């Protein structure tokens, strides 16, 4: 009887895809005794199936056995369900009974526990990890994969010390500053390492949230979560979660909003999401802040976010094409602000249609560069004789007609959404 260390790397059962058969028709009974001791790694809760962190076998559990028959076909057999009399050592060992048909005792066998993690062809059902409910009870009974491969022992099935094949994450989620625990509000969670994606749908209850994952090495992991109203995001780099380990982790999550959900003062990222200005240094990996929400309207396409930096000095035609040619942001359209749009952005930021100081304060709070004091900025508006309107940012905003070929006028784009 051997000790079992916890949570680990994923293995695949022995298969022959060209020659697979169903359960045996004329079984010969074999009995195997599995003694499994589950411990905690470094004091962390890993394969903890009870409140005390101890893995025990339970009545009704089954294990799969993958073997070769004398026709060299791969066969998956499932044990009979455990009864109370099959379980010993306080639940740390159990005797499983299989019915096998014509097994080839010269070939190795593989145990897959629990049996629901074994596919019909005898391989491991890793797709079961795609959808989880975040509870320890479900994870332990259906997803806590452990395997063992060995040769027959003098014609008998070998006793086994199961080896865990999945890393277990016990997640606690907080807001971006770490001041508030949001775990109990989360109803949906997705983790992706670029190769595999794990989706958790759960009730809004206290955590932690348990997730079984394939082990990773120096991986970039993207995490998204929702409480049904707000969405949260997190990108982790260089993450290694190894076999036979469990990880109690606490992650700070940045709240991400759709542009429609945004409010004045929020920043807009290259991903088309809006974030609180306080989170400007906590954006997901690869996301850059490009604008600040400066005006909200109930009419779709009429809300405005102002770019966080000038485009430079140029003539009016170039100003328009430069703004319209900025890198696209999903859900928004870049443009040169009209006179009315400039006034809307001034007025929505603690001032009036002629005061730009409140807008400047908001831009700098969002991490952007303020509009230049005493600067002259183009608008997209034209007068009756074909000249363009510009605004002079002196003590207050003053509107002046100017020739479109004037090339010494500043440009600041806005994003309409």
Features of this protein?
mainly beta, Immunoglobulin-like, Mannose-Binding Protein A, Chain A, 3 domains, 4 helices, 29 strands, 8% helix
Description:
- By secondary structure, the chain is mainly β.
- It has three domains: 163 residues, no CATH class; 90 residues, Immunoglobulin-like (Sandwich); 158 residues, Roll (Mannose-Binding Protein A, Chain A), CATH 3.10.100.
- Helices cover 8% and strands 36% of the residues.
- The chain has four helices and 29 strands.
- The strands form seven sheets. Strands 8-13-12-15-16-18 form a six-stranded mixed sheet, with no helix packed on it.
- A hairpin with an 8-residue loop joins strand 21 and strand 22.
User: Distance between termini?
Assistant: 66 Å
Number of strands: 29
Number of helices: 4
- Tertiary shape: elongated
- Please tell me the overall pLDDT: 86
Global structural class: mainly beta
In angstroms, what is the radius of gyration?
Answer: 31 Å
Largest sheet: 6 strands, mixed
How many domains make up the coordinates?
3
Cross-sheet strand order for the largest sheet: 8-13-12-15-16-18
Query: Portion of residues in helices?
Result: under 10%
Low-confidence stretches: 1-29, 34-52
Instruction: Bin the strand percentage.
Output: 35-45%
What's this model, at a glance?
With 417 residues, this protein is mainly β.
Could you outline the blueprint of secondary structure elements for this entry?
Blueprint: E1 2-4, E2 28-38, E3 64-68, E4 74-78, E5 87-88, E6 93-100, E7 109-113, E8 131-132, H1 136-143, E9 146-150, E10 163-164, E11 167-174, E12 188-192, E13 197-201, E14 209-213, E15 216-226, E16 231-241, E17 246-252, E18 254-256, E19 267-269, E20 274-275, E21 289-295, E22 304-307, E23 312-314, H2 316-324, E24 333-335, H3 339-347, H4 357-365, E25 376-382, E26 388-393, E27 397-402, E28 409-411, E29 414-416
Parallel strand pairs: 1-2, 8-13, 11-17
Antiparallel strand pairs: 2-6, 3-4, 3-7, 5-6, 7-9, 9-10, 11-14, 12-13, 12-15, 15-16, 16-18, 19-20, 19-21, 21-22, 22-29, 23-28, 24-29, 25-26, 26-27
